[in-house]
Design goal:
Radius of gyration: 18 Å
CATH architecture of the largest domain: 3-Layer(bba) Sandwich
Number of domains: 2
Largest sheet: 7 strands, mixed, barrel
Structural class: alpha/beta
Helix content: 25-40%
CATH class of the largest domain: Alpha Beta
Shape: globular
Strand content: 15-25%
Number of helices: 6
């Protein structure tokens, strides 16, 4: 199924939808990592954003349940040049399409992600809409005007106190969307 990304400056990109087949709106940002797409998907700092991956093939080692930065994905949408439908890794539990359907994330492939990244690099982060319909720019602007990501920190912050026991130094963490890898690093050092 075809999908369209419409940026708030009027530039449009057309590609193929995968994952959850529903419109998404968010802040469009890019990530230049060659690996770590699963960590990007679950990183609380990407809450409410549509992430563009610049590396040309994403999904080649699939999705596992260990390499996560939070309990659930935080992105609103995901844009890749090409997704791998048949990943190969001994830890792989599912491919990107299955993971996105399960977690209600729309993806687009077949877009010139490097051209899109150059636009974002030169103009800065901007709002965008991923649509499965051929909507007008005016309609896309209306959707974008109703989107706000100002409550992102509140949404990813821990609501209740929790304790991770250790034998080392006592450390207090204010969790406003901490990555799991930071906690894991403290645990490896034996921190309480």
């Amino acid at each position: 199924m075809m999908a369209k990304l419409i940026l708030e400056n009027g530039i449009e990109f057309t590609g193929r939808a995968f994952g959850y087949q529903k419109e998404a709106v968010g802040e469009v940002v890019f990530n230049t990592g060659m690996t770590g797409y699963q960590e990007v998907l679950t990183d609380p700092s990407y809450y409410g954003q549509i992430v563009v991956m610049t590396y040309p093939l994403i999904g080649n080692y699939g999705i596992n349940f260990e390499d996560v930065e939070s309990k659930s994905p935080k992105v609103k949408g995901f844009i890749v040049k090409e997704k791998c439908s048949f990943p190969s890794n001994f830890r792989c539990k599912m491919n990107l399409d299955e993971y996105f359907k399960e977690n209600k994330i729309i993806g687009i492939e077949g877009i010139d992600t490097r051209a899109l990244t150059k636009i974002l690099r030169d103009t800065g982060t901007m709002k965008g809409v991923i649509s499965l319909e051929d909507i007008s720019f005016d309609r896309a602007l209306e959707i974008m005007q109703n989107f706000s990501n100002k409550d992102a920190v509140f949404k990813v912050s821990t609501k209740e106190k929790y304790h991770i026991e250790g034998r080392g130094k006592h450390i207090a963490i204010y969790d406003f969307g901490i990555k799991q890898n930071i906690i894991t690093s403290f645990i490896k050092e034996g921190a309480d």
